[in-house]
Amino acid sequence: MKQSMTLIPTLREVPADAEIKSHQLLIRAGFIRQNASGVYNYLPLAKKVLHKIETIVREEMERAGAAELLMPALTPAELWQESGRWYSYGPELMRLHDRHERDFVLGPTHEEVITAIVRDEVKSYKRLPLALYQIQTKFRDEKRPRFGLLRGREFIMKDAYSFHASQESLHEMYENMYRAYSNVFARCGLNYRAVIADSGAMGGKDTHEFMVLSEVGEDTIAYSDSSSFAANIEMAPVVMEYPKSNEPQQELEKRETVGKKSIDDVAAYLGVEKEKCIKSMLFQVDNRFVLVLVRGDHEVNDIKVKNLLEATTVELATSEDTSKIMKCAIGSLGPINVDFEAVQVIADHAVASVVNGVCGSNEEDYHFVGVNPDRDFKVSQYADLRFIKEGDPSPDGQGKIVFAEGIEVGHIFKLGTRYSEAMNASYLDDNGRTQPMIMGCYGIGISRTLAAVAEQCNDENGLVWPANLAPYDLHLIAVNVKDDEQRFLAESLYNTLLESGYDVLYDDRAERAGVKFADSDLIGLPLRITVGKRASEGVIEVKVRKTGETLEINIENLVETIAKYVVK
Amino acid sequence: MKQSMTLIPTLREVPADAEIKSHQLLIRAGFIRQNASGVYNYLPLAKKVLHKIETIVREEMERAGAAELLMPALTPAELWQESGRWYSYGPELMRLHDRHERDFVLGPTHEEVITAIVRDEVKSYKRLPLALYQIQTKFRDEKRPRFGLLRGREFIMKDAYSFHASQESLHEMYENMYRAYSNVFARCGLNYRAVIADSGAMGGKDTHEFMVLSEVGEDTIAYSDSSSFAANIEMAPVVMEYPKSNEPQQELEKRETVGKKSIDDVAAYLGVEKEKCIKSMLFQVDNRFVLVLVRGDHEVNDIKVKNLLEATTVELATSEDTSKIMKCAIGSLGPINVDFEAVQVIADHAVASVVNGVCGSNEEDYHFVGVNPDRDFKVSQYADLRFIKEGDPSPDGQGKIVFAEGIEVGHIFKLGTRYSEAMNASYLDDNGRTQPMIMGCYGIGISRTLAAVAEQCNDENGLVWPANLAPYDLHLIAVNVKDDEQRFLAESLYNTLLESGYDVLYDDRAERAGVKFADSDLIGLPLRITVGKRASEGVIEVKVRKTGETLEINIENLVETIAKYVVK
Question: Which of B4, B80, B96 to mutate to test the interface with A (most CBs of A within 10 A)?
């Protein structure tokens, strides 16, 4: 493509509203422009990268045994009412109505539509398993769109859905998809981890997120410094023994601690380590109240509380509820003398190892000291209830935990019968009995992957595209197009390279050399070929974007030289 | 692809609500399913055809010099307010608002968005011309969605837009696009015509529609039986000499014609040919009234009236207005003794050749006979004001006009400065003067092309895909998969054919032979390869879907035989 015939509007300045590197660079290098908050135009360079990502995804989906289809964005509300998501999804769901006042949804995902299709067309176990995928524009009305393509309101997704007659069959497809996703992100040149994830609002069990490691991100990943273990910190189990001190138990005593409320203040005031403090937090768990205890240096993980108690919602109790139930303020909560009829007490394993600790007294300005669990208060259950910390042992027994930020680019998920039961998608098994189909769902953020690559692959001069995703293989530059020798040579090389099967961006613009080189670095194609002053001698320059390596070569050696760097 | 692993839900029955062949066959052969009125799921076979159409379109667009981008479906209302279409588009425009009550449009076309992009990024004539295209899902809330994919509410379009500094540059791109469109539809195997079209509501001048000839369609095309001339009947000019009779002029006379109102009744009652009658119709043309005269065997073409008078709206006058202006009922209108201050009289060329004709008298139950134009009434202008008729001479002087129904699959259009002026998209010319960009726009209905091919390429047994668009090249059938010899041979051929680069659909289902053959005919791949009873001898059958030609061949000759029929 001749650069004069396409639209690559580069910018020298960093756009004021772009907080992160990928967003800044995709705008500066002329890949994207905002159309509305969280809604972007993919300009020609970005569109080429999207094509390359999509091609990789299609190849890996076909290899995993999935067939491509395309469902509409407009989805009748009735399907969403059947699944119940019409009522539960909230304001992120974009709703509209047609000229006849019929309600529609602009699909953020397509579980309802695919379940309706398969329900209507597949009736027998003989037609299962079946895996279908699509690559499509999706809509989600984010409250706070940000980070450019990373959290937008209109975005491109690959979503796949599978239907099975057994858990084993689902598991086999899940493993296929796990491999396919690993291949996709490896082929995209990304440093990623498959992370054990929270199933969130989707209500299933087995689930992995594919996370690109990054300096920015909306999720924190806890991973082992010496194994492949990785989990969303919300989901990382804490597996460790807490050493119990041999210190003799002291007597329980109430101490005045006027104005001291935070763990830090109380520990400092009483001259004890935070590890000796017991933090008490009151949660409303569905319709009851639960006091959760963790050590002062730990944080309660409410997802673990929710999973332990098999609850639907877990929320911090309000101060009104706290004073009604515990007769005190939130900052004074403690586990001693609690009314077990009104409140259940559960504690993290670490609490059991506290000797002569400190806790709130359910009375303002007083704390207990010399507190010994099980002697001074009862705990109905000890469990893993806290967030993992950096330095904790990795749950797989290998190495220590490190944190990183992550950008979620993929998600695979065993849905089970959540949708098939709600929407009556059943099949006849080999005994002629009606059974709900067992489902899996598998998503990849296509436009988000583009941004994740930009976030991971750049340097101070601009983007540095991995070969598989680069919008073009080569950037051919005629330094001075007004010089006939340079222009003729560049055009002849352009045709030669196209004929050799390379995708070439040819900068034929009448711009200064400095502008062309700066634009070229910003755009970040793998190889730059510069036709300059030595054109008359048949000598040109080849520069590797990633390493900066520069070679002066004779044009006769061009195709051979390129073949060393760019594999077609 | 193994047929057991994809979703091709064929039907034996014709669906009750599908009126036309393409709609019936695409449903019966398992290509599409309705999701809501005018909203369809493209099942795996249709998705494969869409890919092939899109690939052809991309190749031809790149060759025409256009670069691909992707704009969002969600378009802020502000852009549509700038262009004015927010107010004029009517209920076909799907509107919605986000969680912050900001108005958006689901784009039916993208003139506003592309104009805003180019306005913001291109400032100089040096960056023009520029042509950009996208392939995207579009939305239009049709009042009466019908004919399956032909008139849907969510559909796939290729839309291209070009920006120019001169009419010559626009014209050059228009010619490029004309060639590109001709190539696209030829490569899709369609019998089409490039038709001179009405510019409709778009307000431009040069425009061609690409129409697939068909038994059904929403437009009638007038084309020459012996040249490439074709036009929408609304736009076909009438170019002919009307012979004037030598009959001596009679005297004007008023005759009683009680109860005779239609041309047919009056002609029969008075014993004259319809060609002798003068039909008078009163139109409201913007704010004035115009009496339009055509011969009794002709019909007024109001678009020609509108163009002649350079009007914005042309509508038949109401009976209230008619009786106010002409003091008579609509059925009695005539051109004699008309008040020229209130009404302009214009006539089709054919009227000038009427001698001793008949016309209304502006008085109930009376007609004039012996009417001679210019002697008995004045005409301010003679012009081409009627619809062309079958049998009329072709306007290019070659052959006679024939009518056919047409399915519009493409449209190219010189937009001019309609959007650039409204939205202030200007550039600096080489004298440093600000000029509005001159625009063209060019659309192809991608999903509609799929339906048009299905409408044109079928027989009594099902679809008959042209080689370039067939979802797969070959349909490989194992007649009885429970027979090990057949199954082994079929699977080995499947792998051989895939390795040879063919796209193969392999029917590995445990279905009866009759079902498999009927499904295969319905789906309509170019070549069927059947592995049946003679598998043990290494003999298989090859059948050409289009001609029915059948060959029994040895497996050793398979690849060679296929190469004769399917070009890779």
Answer: B96
- The alpha-carbon gap from B90 to the nearest alpha carbon of chain A, in Å, equals 10
C-alpha–C-alpha distance, residues B121 and A34, integer Å? 12
Question: pLDDT at position A387, please?
Answer: 96
In which region does residue A365 sit, left (phi positive, over 0), alpha (psi from -120 to 50) or beta (all else)? left
**Nearest CA-CA distance, residue B148 and chain A, Å:** 14
**Distance between CA atoms of residues A294 and A322, nearest Å:** 18
Task: Write the residue in A40, A65, A69 that is nearest to B43 by C-beta.
Answer: A69
Count the helices and strands in chain B (H runs, E runs): 14, 31
Residue whose C-alpha is closest to residue B401's, from B414, B412, B390: B390
A chain contacts of residue B172, beta-carbon cutoff 8 Å: none
Q: Measured between CA atoms, how close is A165 to chain B, in angstroms?
A: 14
Residues from chain B that touch A510, judged by Cβ atoms under 8 A, are 126
A6–B67 CB contact, under 8 Å = yes
Mutation site, B26, B35, B149, interface A, largest A CB count within 10 A? B35
CATH numbers and ranges of domains, chain A: 17-191+413-454 (3.30.930.10), 253-383 (3.90.960.10), 474-565 (3.40.50.800)
Chain A residues whose CB is inside 8 A of the B127 CB are 4
Confidence class of residue A218 from pLDDT cuts 50, 70 and 90?
Answer: confident
**B478, B508 contact by CB (below 8 A):** yes
Share of chain A above pLDDT 90, in %: 87
**Which of A74, A75, A137 lies closest to B153 in CB terms?**
A74
What ipTM does the predicted assembly reach? Answer: 0.85
Report the gap between the CA of A539 and the closest CA in chain B (Å).
30
Q: Cβ contact (<8 Å) for A76 and B510?
A: no
Report the gap between the CA of A64 and the closest CA in chain B (Å): 11
Select from B67, B121, B154 the Cβ nearest to the Cβ of A9: B121
Which tens digit of pLDDT belongs to each residue from A502-535? 999 999 999 999 999 999 999 999 999 999 999 9
Taking only the tens place, the pLDDT of each residue in A372-425 is 999 999 999 999 999 999 999 999 899 999 999 999 999 999 999 999 999 999
**What is the Cα–Cα distance from A178 to A192, expressed in whole angstroms?**
13
Provide DSSP, B508-520. Answer: -----HHHHHHHH
Q: What whole-number percentage of chain B has pLDDT above 90?
A: 87
CB contact under 8 Å between A74 and B36, yes or no, is yes
Residue in B with minimal Cα distance to A99: B91
Structure confidence at residue B175 (pLDDT): 95
User: When comparing pLDDT for A96 and B567, which is higher?
Assistant: A96
Which of A10, A98, A141 to mutate: most B Cβ within 10 Å?
A: A98
Report how far apart the first and last C-alpha atoms of chain B are (Å, whole number). 18
Please spell the DSSP secondary structure of A161-229, one letter per residue. Answer: EEEESSHHHHHHHHHHHHHHHHHHHHHTT--EEEEE---GGG--S-EEEEEEEESS-SEEEEEESSSS-
B405-442 pLDDT tens trace: 999 999 999 999 999 999 999 999 999 999 999 999 99
pLDDT at B200: 47
pLDDT in tens, B499-548: 999 999 999 999 999 999 999 999 999 999 999 999 999 999 999 999 99
Residue B265 confidence (pLDDT) above 80: yes
Task: Give the chain A residue nearest B36 (alpha carbons).
Answer: A76
Q: Who contacts B156 (Cβ-Cβ below 8 Å, separation ≥6)?
A: B50, B135, B136, B137, B138, B445, B446, B447
How far apart are the CA of B260 and the nearest CA of chain A, in angstroms?
Answer: 44
Q: Is B270 helix (H, G, I), strand (E, B) or coil?
A: helix
Amino acid at A42: Y
The per-residue pLDDT of chain B, averaged, comes to 94
